[in-house]
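Appendix B. Chain record.
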Amino acid sequence: MRSIVNHLKFRFYQIFRIFNLDLKVSIPFLLIFIVLIIVKLPSDRYYPFLFFMMVLAFHSSRKDIPFLKKVFEKSWRAVIVLESALIYTVFLLGNIHYKPEEIGWATYLLIMVFAFFFPKTKLNPALKWNFISDDLFEWKSFLRKNTWFSIAGYTIVLFSSYHPGSLIIAGIFLMDYISDIYEPYESKEMLEMGFKKINLKEKIRKNSLFFNALLLPVYILFLIMNLYSSLYLLYYLAFMNLYFLLIITRKYKLYHYKEKRGYYNISVYIEYIFYSMTVIPALLVLRNNIKNAEQNIRTYVGD
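Structure tokens predicted for this chain:
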């Protein structure tokens, strides 16, 4: 028992250490956590499902199961359930509008199943995302590495469509992960081969179509539940697409074959969020990004 208590203390201190070292993690998390505390849903029955999905996303992305098996030989399953239950409790009872009811308590039974369902070291071969075109290799690579996390996150984005406020907040949070998709640089040979088949504008078009196809269910659900707030959807559509275009053009504006990543950080995130929210600056930066990106690509591919 004492070892489990010490482990929970370690987890608690670890949270603050991660937050202090990585603002990219801490700031988006704090924003989402504050929203989850103050958000008011139409029914108390929606809260348990929303918070359970948050805990499921955490559980599906964890990679410390082998460590727990070594440290807690007989009680490692109990530690998994206890950690998830504590996170769920913080979310559930932290919300100022939620009043405990039967579904909230019953969801703890689902969390107990986590002791027997946990991430594998290798993904199911069926989840290779081979149906995605090679022109969208950034998406294919990201989804292969983050399958269950992506599915859980996408479900949360779908449920954010119930209210304009949650839609915008979820969109801001989502943009941080979209940025990660385009941060890694492909090899020089891969870049040359890719842009000999299609040009930059065609790549942007295909990636934008795929991005908006993913968000299409969100658009439809929002219109169904908020028919008289369609102006919010237009702003959301512009904001999401502007940020997306800024990120993908930034990649090829800065691309260099000797670098592995694009040095995306919290300052880039805040800067592009501001540009996208104000629209006009985003259009000016976007035009400059495209011009410089095309020139940069020509140095590798030629005319």
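Further analysis of this model is presented in Appendix C.
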